[in-house]
Structures are given as C-alpha cells and as structure tokens.
Design brief:
This protein is α/β, with parallel strands linked by helices. The chain folds into two domains: 3-59 and 299-390, Alpha-Beta Complex (Aspartate Aminotransferase, domain 1); 73-297, Type I PLP-dependent aspartate aminotransferase-like (Major domain) (Aspartate Aminotransferase, domain 2, 3-Layer(aba) Sandwich), CATH 3.40.640.10. Helix content is 38%, strand content 18%. It has helices spanning 3-15, 48-51, 60-70, 83-96, 107-122, 139-143, 148-151, 169-173, 199-212, 263-266, 282-297, 300-316, 342-350, 373-390; strands at residues 27-31, 34-37, 42-45, 100-104, 126-130, 160-164, 180-185, 215-219, 243-246, 257-261, 323-329, 332-337, 353-354, 356-358, 362-365. The strands form three sheets. The chain has a seven-stranded mixed sheet, sandwiched between helices. It has a four-stranded mixed sheet with strand order 1-2-3-13. α3 packs antiparallel against α11. The protein is globular, with a radius of gyration of 21 Å.
C-alpha cells in the first residue's frame, strides 16, 4: 500500500459520502483494456467503468475530439442550438429505429424521462417492471428497480409498480392491463446477473402492450453500442419498443444519457414538460460522435460478438464444479457460481484482473470491446485459478 494510495483513501473517507464499497486500489491511468493503479501495477479491466468504456480507456479519437471541442465551446445550455447536438441526433435516431431523442446526463435520468413520457402519453400511472431489474436510483427509476434494499428506505415511491418474473410470459400476461402506462424491460439484465430472455418473451411483451394500449420501454443503458454483439440488444429479437433509454458507452467515457421514442409517443411531450441543463452539450456530443465513428471504423460490434464467443467458450471449457451456468451475448457475460463471488473478485484483482460481482453469485464480464484474445486468455487463467482457490 503506497503513501499516494493511503493519502487518497484518507481524503475520501474524510470528505466524501461513504455510500460506495470500493476495492482497495486507486486507479491512476488507463489505455485500451488495461488500467494502472497509483503503485504502477497493471490490471486487465473486465469492468470497464461498468460497461462504459466500450472503446477502451482513453481512445485517441475521443481524446482528440474532446480536446478540440473544449478549446472551442464547452457549454451553452439548451436555450440555443448547437451543431454537435443536431449531428449526434441525426446519427443516433435512425440507428436505433426511433424517431426523436432527448439528451440527458446518465442512465437513471434517461429512465426518469421515459417514465414521465409514458405517463404523459398514456394518461396512466401504473408500471410493470421485472424481478432482478435495475433501472437507476433516483426516485422514479428506483421505483422500477426490483432490489428491495435499494427501494425500501425511500418508500413511498411511484404509485403502483408491479414486478413480474423475468423471461416468463405468463407472469407478464397477468400484469399488463388497461391501467398500465408502460412495461419497462432490460433486453438483457445486467445488475440482475446477466440474464438473457427468450425472443418469445420480448415479442410477447410487445404484443401485450399493444393489446392493452400500454407502452414498451427498453432500457438499453448497459446493453447498447455493441456490448452484446449488436448495436443494441433489441436487434437480437427484432422487437421495437416505443421508448428506449441509453447511456454508459454513449460518449466514450464522458457522462451522457439519452431517451428516444417513436414519433406518436414523443409528440405527447410538450415544451416545458422536461429539461436538462447539461443535456446534449457540445463537449459530450463531440465525444459521442467520435465514439460512434470508432465503433464503426474498428468494427467493434462484430468484434464484440467474436470476442464474446471466445470468452464464453474459454470459460465453458474450464468445466469447474463451482460454475452452475455461463450466459450472455457479445462481451456481456455472466458466470454464475454456487458460492458468493466476492472472494473471487478479490483473488482476481490480486492477480491483475478487475472483475465485478453482481447478484451475489454472478461474475460479470463487461470488458472493453477492444480486448485481445491474449488478454482474454489471461483472464480465463486467473478465473480458473481463483475458482480452484475458492474450492
């Protein structure tokens, strides 16, 4: 433990709200799929800012775009037009299959906007969400997040939210009705343990919403921008929602979110109904435009599918007793264990790999889409060694 690290910890513990459980390292720099701590130790990063750094750390194209834009115009607010926001909207809207976009600063803000829009468009107040869902921690987004330890200290939240069994059509059928404003679903659950639903489930959600006059919201905050081997996870099923939420990887590491909607739904949002002071500012839009270009130029969507298959197959080849299931799409992979995975996260970190444990017993792998086969091999080696240590 270096003096630099301890100094950072001491200041954090004195001045910062202590609402995070941090791992005992301080990251000082990153490049590609690798980060270094303040002691100079190197780690392969399979957390990637929780699926934010799809391009890897400090991609030169993003660094250059941000540097150039920062010298020209950083912020002016949405009282004025900017070319960067208009250009980004022009690129994102057709790529998502939506018609309109609202820019904000995070995933939870995008979800808040989606919930408000659903109420405005339908005149209804009830929502249906899934068990094991995670949509954010602000009051509206928290209402449709399943984990009780997140919600209960802040009750009452939204008037009525019903949680249904994820990937269970019959559970949905019994809950979507004429009082439902919207069904909100992650097309692949992230915090819930990388749970992949069937195409039938997502199609049924679409049909049930249509029959009830409700809206379908897809939360693609974690699954967007190539993470699952498609630009957006909804492409695996071909199901189109009425509203989409995006964030995380949108701006190459800078904080940015977006809510998109079909025209007939978006048209219900009137001037003054919603706003974001920093939403779609020129700096983050410049970063997002650079990020989209990198994803295209470097074929990172296709690379995610190939590297994801390579990672999943390598993990399956381990055939370890502690592993009960390996699931995912692209470079969004979950390894479910029959023990809690916290000790394995610690072991991996001590051996140069950063991992995340979600849903208590699921190791989540969301590395940069630029990760190499050699780096994946090292990750698999460390995981195999770590699981044997747990045994």
């Amino acid at each position: 433990m270096t003096d630099i690290y301890q100094n950072i910890v001491d200041r954090d513990q004195k001045y910062v709200f202590q609402n995070y459980t941090r791992q005992p390292i301080a990251i000082s720099r990153g490049a590609g799929a690798v980060v270094w701590d303040t002691g100079g130790r190197e780690y392969i990063d399979c957390v990637a800012g929780i699926a934010v750094n799809n391009l890897g750390h400090c991609h030169p194209a993003v660094v250059e775009a941000v540097s150039r834009q920062a010298a020209e115009l950083i912020h002016v607010s949405n009282l004025y037009y900017t070319s960067q926001q208009a250009e980004l909207a022009e690129q994102l809207v057709p790529r998502t299959g939506m018609d309109r976009i609202f820019f904000c600063n995070s995933g939870t803000e995008a979800v808040e906007g989606a919930l408000k829009l659903a109420r405005r468009a339908t005149g209804r107040t009830d929502f249906v969400a899934a068990e094991h869902s995670f949509h954010g921690r602000t009051m509206g987004a928290l209402s449709v997040t399943h984990k009780s330890q997140y919600r209960e200290p802040f009750q009452p939240l939204l008037q009525k939210v019903e949680f249904v069994v994820y990937n269970n059509v019959e559970s949905l059928k019994g809950s979507v009705n004429r009082d439902t404003a919207a069904v909100i679903i992650e097309p692949i659950q992230g915090e819930g343990g990388v749970r992949v639903p069937s195409d039938e489930y997502l199609r049924s959600a679409r049909d049930l919403c249509d029959d009830a006059g409700a809206l379908l919201i897809f939360d693609e905050v974690q699954t967007g921008f190539g993470r699952t081997g498609k630009w957006f996870a909804r492409e695996h099923s071909g199901v189109e929602p009425d509203i989409m939420t995006l964030a995380k990887a949108l701006a190459g590491g800078l904080p940015m979110g977006a809510m998109l909607a079909k025209e007939d739904t978006a048209a219900r949002m009137q001037k003054g109904d919603h706003a974001a002071t920093f939403g779609g500012g020129p700096l983050v839009c410049a970063a997002a435009l650079a990020s989209l270009k990198v994803i295209e130029d470097e074929n990172l969507v296709e690379r995610s599918a190939l590297m994801g298959d390579y990672l999943m197959q390598g993990l399956k080849n381990l055939e370890l007793d502690r592993v009960t299931e390996i699931r995912g799409k692209g470079l969004m992979v979950g390894v479910e264990l029959n023990v809690k995975c916290g000790p394995l996260v610690d072991y991996a970190r001590e051996h140069g790999v950063l991992l995340n444990c979600t849903s208590d017993s699921v190791l989540r792998f969301v590395p940069p889409l630029t990760i190499t086969k050699e780096q994946i091999d090292r990750v698999i080696e460390v995981v195999a060694q770590g699981i044997k240590e747990v045994e």
